[in-house]
């Protein structure tokens, strides 16, 4: 609520005459003086936001001068402030009726109606002003707003046209007309208003961008492109304009133009790195959605390379480049960007974790081990770094070091399924260290965290079978692992070996044969098949499979003894 000044309200009081009889002059003067005193006190209370006292004083003034427009107006103002719209309207109507030519009384009454949701009454009050002040621009604008509020958009535009006739073109008036035409789905008219706005403020990028979108909705693609080119010329660094242009290129499968535009933006030193990242991510999403578009892949690669070269000291740019290369299985190039990212920002935990993981996936375990201390120092308590380091030590045969890193990884924050993988790998290491009780505990934890961790199931089952312990449980886990992944050579071999330990040699031969038929069987599987045939009494076949195992892995020298015995 806009407060009226005391001088303003006093002026209203004295501007409105009170009819008096000559013979009652003394009496009337006394009443006027008393009423004025109440009025001034009420206005002061109103200014001090003491609305109860203001109402008391102004009501007392009203008892003396109920036909005084200024007093009624003041009472209405107080009631409006306390959201008593009924009384605000009542006293506001009296003031307006007493002084029908007073613009401010009708404006106030219109406001009361508007705030109480009675827009049609507000419109009537505003139209009443126009009878006396037909060219009042403020009133015309309020009328336009009220017509818009009740959905009479064409009448709103009539009021706005009157304003334009009176004051000439104005950006905000054309904007209001545009919004009305847009709501009416009169797109040609809306576009006309946008063009007028464009003439009034040719440098307004928002207007140009909106115009371009309307052209597109009207099927006028070339006009849309021309407007966006103008916007780009006015500000080559505005990413919204460039993205809108990119949408046109994409719609027309103009991938080369799209890529060239983005390369130009990435190479523009006036565009800051976060804006470049926004553009590159936009392009990458498009590429991910349409991977079959070879030229789009080529243009995406060009933009990524440009970003990496132009922003060599901006870690997020190196990370997004690495992400692109990882998606395209270009591990070596991804490593270059990840290494650069960790150099720029050594505390970048994500970069360290990805770098360690990529090296691990490439089987470069020594490099993982060499980086581990530095990575762990800059990104402490990172489960990924600790897990892949521990797994690398395991593959290098350094089981005690592997145990330390994996146990630390179990205490670092991570999701349940990943913690399950950590415990499963820890179980493998504990087995190698001949800590069977701790092995069991690790596997059990892995399966509690993720009951579908088939790798943990398989390994747990295999080691139970080797120890010839709890073979029923081993069979249950091995069977579930195979059912989840029936083409896994290792899982099939484990199930066959469990059956072997249970002396069900036909089932053992069946599953181990399936393992071999995958084409991924190891020397250990060949050896198992030899053991099965030995149990079945076919020593010739046993000898053939043991020989295959030895040929596959010459370090299995103990097989020579078996071969010599046959």
TrEMBL record:
Domain Cytochrome c-type biogenesis protein H TPR: 425-514
PROSITE patterns: TPR, TPR_REGION
Stretch forming the signal peptide: 1-22
Keyword list, A-Z: Repeat, Signal, TPR repeat
One Pfam family this sequence matches: TPR_19
Each TPR repeat, start to end: 69-102, 103-136, 315-348, 420-453, 489-522, 523-556
Record Gene3D superfamilies: Tetratricopeptide repeat domain (1.25.40.10)
Membrane-crossing segments per the record: none
Top-rank taxon, per record: Bacteria
PANTHER family recorded: CELLULOSE SYNTHASE OPERON PROTEIN C, TPR REPEAT-CONTAINING PROTEIN MJ0263
Name the record gives this protein: Tetratricopeptide repeat protein
Top-level taxonomy: Bacteria, Pseudomonadati, Balneolota, Balneolia, Balneolales
